[in-house]
Q: What sequence folds into this?
């Protein structure tokens, strides 16, 4: 189902990308191409002379870049006349150039293809085995991308780049997965390089919660939000932060790790080595573990949803406890950032108010009163597509194709 853009971030930073180093000739060419794309998005079609005037680039530079873009099917050129002279009309090729968004999770990989005009062209998700290796996950992503490209009728040369998200912290200086990821098999893997080798296109890597936040202000209804927290609750728990209209990355990119905020000092030992972290109370993994006790078989996240809909008392209690803990952790963030919106994403969004009500109670109990009262808490409208959509948005930003 197509998603529609609403607005965009003020800046177009692309952490963890495999793009050329600043100051290099290829980096300069990329920036110039971004300026041309921005001009065409704002008022296409344009002649090359008009592009030159609007961007400040020389006519020779515009001609060279447009020629290269035409070869890659990024633009469509047609002869025209301007002021009585022969000219070349240029417009973006909506069906040619595509951005790929890839979301790799604990048990799935989802890939979307998006046009420069922020239209979702193709989308598919497949299951992965629990504990899959990094190589298997990346191979599955590459295979799924190839299938969607064939379905769309475009070749790999039309792919502007691939944005990729995983559930875990990533050192944005190197694109390496660091300790604390839900996918321990991926720790130490340089996704930027390894996946770029498999795909043959520029790769942009980020944490899945960051991508969820980016998706909300790019594809969702919250484009005008300057300060927003996106909390993803799944096998792990993390937060993506929009501060003053921009994604916030901190020093090396390790931000929003609220899954490892201490909620109960005498709680369970967490995979991070600490005790009583939010993930030991509110992740879907702990919910499944609690509700599977005394059961003949292991339940799934979909079982949690169906049991909650059926008003099962044990399920409702587990959800209520988890929601209150998420609300408490969100309150600590809200007291620091004073957001307009706190958006809950992940695999439990279908619970609606059953999950939101205890989150709101936890927020109001632990936040500064005015902060709690003025922070709106809601479910993501993008569901489990948010992270892949955010990954595609990373690529579009790098091309200067910010959502209108």
A:
């Amino acid at each position: 189902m197509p998603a529609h853009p609403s607005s965009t971030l003020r800046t177009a930073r692309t952490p963890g990308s495999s793009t050329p180093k600043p100051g290099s000739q290829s980096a300069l060419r990329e920036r110039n191409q971004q300026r041309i794309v921005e001009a065409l998005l704002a008022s296409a079609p344009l002649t090359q002379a008009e592009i030159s005037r609007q961007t400040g680039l020389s006519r020779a530079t515009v001609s060279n870049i447009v020629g290269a873009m035409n070869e890659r099917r990024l633009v469509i050129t047609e002869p025209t006349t301007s002021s009585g002279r022969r000219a070349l009309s240029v417009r973006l090729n909506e069906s040619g150039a595509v951005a790929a968004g890839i979301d790799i999770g604990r048990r799935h990989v989802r890939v979307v293809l998006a046009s420069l005009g922020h239209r979702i062209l193709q989308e598919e998700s497949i299951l992965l085995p629990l504990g899959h290796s990094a190589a298997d996950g990346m191979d599955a992503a590459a295979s799924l991308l190839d299938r969607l490209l064939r379905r769309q009728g475009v070749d790999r040369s039309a792919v502007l780049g691939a944005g990729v998200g995983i559930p875990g912290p990533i050192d944005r200086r190197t694109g390496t997965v660091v300790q604390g990821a839900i996918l321990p098999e991926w720790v130490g893997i340089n996704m930027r390089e390894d996946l770029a080798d498999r795909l043959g296109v520029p790769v942009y890597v980020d944490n899945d919660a960051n991508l969820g936040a980016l998706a909300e202000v790019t594809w969702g209804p919250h484009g005008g939000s300057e300060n927003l927290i996106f909390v993803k609750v799944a096998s792990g728990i993390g937060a993506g932060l929009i501060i003053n209209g921009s994604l916030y990355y901190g020093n090396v990119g390790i931000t929003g790790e609220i899954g490892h905020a201490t909620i109960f000092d005498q709680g369970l030992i967490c995979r991070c080595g600490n005790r009583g972290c939010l993930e030991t109370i509110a992740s879907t993994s702990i919910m499944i573990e609690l509700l599977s006790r005394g059961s003949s078989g292991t339940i799934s996240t979909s079982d949690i949803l169906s049991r909650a809909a059926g008003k099962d008392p044990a399920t409702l209690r587990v959800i209520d406890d988890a929601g209150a803990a998420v609300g408490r952790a969100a309150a600590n963030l809200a007291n620091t950032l004073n957001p307009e919106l706190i958006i809950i994403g992940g695999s439990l969004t279908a619970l609606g108010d059953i999950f939101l009500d205890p989150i709101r109670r936890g927020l109001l109990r632990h936040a500064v009163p005015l902060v709690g009262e003025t922070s709106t808490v809601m479910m993501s409208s993008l569901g489990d597509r948010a992270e892949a959509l955010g990954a595609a948005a990373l690529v579009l930003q790098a091309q200067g194709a910010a959502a209108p």
In short: Residues 1-16 have pLDDT under 50 and may be disordered. DSSP finds 13 helices and 15 strands in the chain. Residues 1-221+383-404 form a domain with the Nucleotidyltransferase; domain 5 fold (CATH 3.30.420.40).
